[in-house]
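Re-running the complex after MR caught last week's input typo. The corrected sequence lines follow. Everything else is unchanged.
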Amino acid sequence: MSKSLQITHNDTCVDFTFSGDWVLRVESGEVKEQWNHFLSQKSPVSLNCRFFLKPDSKWDSSLLVFLLKARNDLIKNDHSVDFTNLPEKLQNLLSFARQRTGEKNISSHVLDPADEGSLFSFVKACQQFSTFWGKWLLSLGQLLLGRSYMRFSDFFGACRDCGATALPIVTLIAFLTGLTMAFVGSVQLEKFNATIYVADLVSLAMVREMGALMVAIVMAGRTGASFAAELGAMKLREEIDSLRTFGIPAMDFLVLPRTLALFFMTPLLTLYADVVGILGGLTVGTQVMDFSSLHYFEQTQSALTNMWEVYSGLIKSLAFGLIIGLVGCYKGMFTGSSSASLGKSVTSSVVVSITLIVICDACFEIFFSFMGYR
Amino acid sequence: MTVSTENNWIVKVDGLVLRYGRNTVLDDISFEVRQGQCLTVMGPSGCGKSTLLKSMTGLLRPVAGNVEFRNGLLWGKSDSANQEVVSNFGVLFQGSALWGAMNLLENISLPLQTFSKLKNSEIEEIASYKLSLVGLSGCEHLYPSELSGGMQKRAGLARALSMDPEILFLDEPSAGLDPINSSQLDELIIELKSSLGITFVVVTHELDSIFQISNDSIFLSPSTKSIVDQGLPTTMKTSSKHQEVLNFLSRTNAVDQDPL
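Corrected-run output:
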């Protein structure tokens, strides 16, 4: 049975009678319109409003909420409200609810309301990141002077985590990158009857660009995110605070070993990816295009006579490793105090590092070509 | 109450003002902690107890005022706390905050490895001794995630004790513990206080603990953002001039509700 409300006017006395099922699962029907209609008929005198509930009707919170709202509306219009004819249980709940609504509102902006996404917050974040970067440099200086709290066991552990254990995924990605480039290149080069130049294309693209870039992207998604998540969780569980109360700087103890490990491991992985990528090209060259392996290798060798091609890729990857490590740790260390903010930190560590990697890559290329290194 | 001569303070909080952004949490807090005593900081939830502790342990820089220890001021010119002063005290965090990547032995050894000149074997002995102090001998090689809440708290206490601090700050030590575990922890605190002479500053709102462990206490009120009453809790319960304090300590809600 749907909810219904019956309104009977009787001089200065108005009776509201509820009937039907006033339960959450039943639709409100036209009760709301009825109520608003009643309120819109402005009465010049103060009315005495009495409320009744038909004995056979069911009720739950939905009736309670309606009554509380009705009471507020009526009092606003200077009418008097009489709940005494309602069942006792309902009256008790109503008075209980009234007691609780009197408490003061607590502001939800307990923390600084820095508007997210505004230019101001962007500038602030940049400032914060440069401070972090500066502190990192100071901490590195301390390490070089032999006064750091960094434990070398942590450094080697981090090297294993971001170096050796990343080999399978790097192998897969680099091999497929080389393979894809060979396929794409062969179609174009066939038009000029120059298919053997696919070896030049794959090897040059791999060592100059794709090796470093692919490794950086894998590292950003894999290691950078794990740094952010690990440090962020430590922040949430007050583990970083407890380091501080012992006087052990988190920068030395947590950030430095991780960033340095990534800084040293990324070039090594890049070199490895270069080789695997060339092997990917070789696979297409020998299996699809029918070159002999020797022929393909000789062609590759002639393309890479200048070792600068390889070094330029490795220089880039050093920068990429640093970017990923710093961004990951920064995002972790500046995680807010909720688990939602941890998720945000991890996401943004990946997004920010990939963005910075692409920007940095472009800057390197522009620099190299203007300086005549290409 | 034990000795209470005037000049045996060990921590002096002077005019501390604490803010989060624009929101003032505590305004002009001053009190002293006397040596060898257990001072409890109490008050209803949200009154800034933990914030006060953060500032006293060098984690939150006050807007004004300072915290003075015997060997100097905690907050100097730089943004972070004075390292030399920090080495005076140990802290037990609300969630224990043990380092999850290390086992208990490593957790307790880390400060020793970092700051002492001892050999590794000696450090291990000390760490095992500290664990036995809190009744966790034999758990050296367990990781924090393998421990129950009560054991984590005790391990946190052992780590806080690792550098033989003069003062221990405990943030809600009995939060989330069952009555038996929490009373065991209280007994441990009393024992450590009497046997090692450690001064305790305990933030709590567990009434049983308050009455059991404290020699002195301060009551923070969220409405005035300051200390409304201080003294021995048992005395405060009967003779405090503030309704708020009386209600808190006798666990009643006698504030007149708005009748409407």
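None of the earlier attempt is carried over here. The beta strands of chain A are 4-10, 13-19, 48-53, 80-82. The interface with chain B takes residues 98-99, 102, 107, 109-113, 149, 233-234, 237-239, 241-248 of chain A (CB under 8 Å).
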